[in-house]
Amino acid sequence: MNDRVPTSLLSALGLITGFGTAVGTGSRPAGGAVMALFGLTCIYFWVRRDGNVTAVRLTIVGLTAFVLSHVLGLVLGAWPSVLLVSAVTAWFCWRWSDSKVFRSAAGPLTSS
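Structure (tokenized):
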């Protein structure tokens, strides 16, 4: 499997799609299942390419984002809250995982 999977995108889509599924179907368990599928996929790639420590750190970020989206939802509204925590989660995933993979694949940025 390709290790160049952008987990920043997957993690954000997991939160957004999970919430959208819960709203659209009226089933929180269905939304949770969608979010869990995305989350487990991200964890697979983090463990494989970044190791257990990074995987645990980013998993905690994702779970914290899920909880904070509920708290922020009371203030901001449901969708703005989900979009905000998804963006923050994606940033952490990029910073701690994806940037290493994509930066090394692109090579050094130098001018001639």
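The chain has a mean pLDDT of 92. The radius of gyration is 15 Å.
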